[in-house]
Amino acid sequence: MPKAVIRPFHLAFPVHCLAAARRFYGGVMGCAEGRSADQWIDFNLFGHQIVAHLVPGQGGAGQGGPAHHNPVDGHDVPVPHFGVVLERADWDALAARLTAAGVTFGIAPHVRFAGQAGEQATMFFHDPSGNALEFKSFADDAMLFATEILP
């Protein structure tokens, strides 16, 4: 199968406060800000467009939204969540940046599925509105959808 050209994704999500979203995504995460208005802010999340939309009184799991978790490799993974698959150096730098900023991890940076198909470095945390984020990195991107260990 020919390799697909990956295009940037777009994700709009609710936040309870645009100033808090700007501090977290722009300041803590280091995402460049794009367009904005009174009700929303565009951010560049590793080349992808995410848009924080003001929805007073709402947000993710921490703000009255769903608080569901599924078990994955011994951890309770929050659902829903979003994030990006990064190169390992970028993943390491983000983990260090978040740690230095005092971000509390729901699932601390670690390697899951060690020695198995899909082995990956992963971390989970929440933004100020309670939206769950996961960032991961594969030693080999071919393992992203692997169901068995490749030769």
UniProtKB/TrEMBL annotation:
CDD domains referenced in this protein's UniProt entry, alphabetically: VOC_like (cd08357)
User: According to the lineage, what is the superkingdom?
Assistant: Bacteria
Give the matching InterPro entries.
Glyas_Bleomycin-R_OHBP_Dase (IPR029068), Glyas_Fos-R_dOase_dom (IPR004360), VOC_core (IPR037523)
Which Pfam family, any one, appears in the UniProt record? Glyoxalase
Instruction: Extract the Gene3D superfamilies matched here.
Output: 2,3-Dihydroxybiphenyl 1,2-Dioxygenase, domain 1
Name the UniProt record assigns to this protein: Glyoxalase
User: Per the database record, which ranges form the VOC domain?
Assistant: 7-138
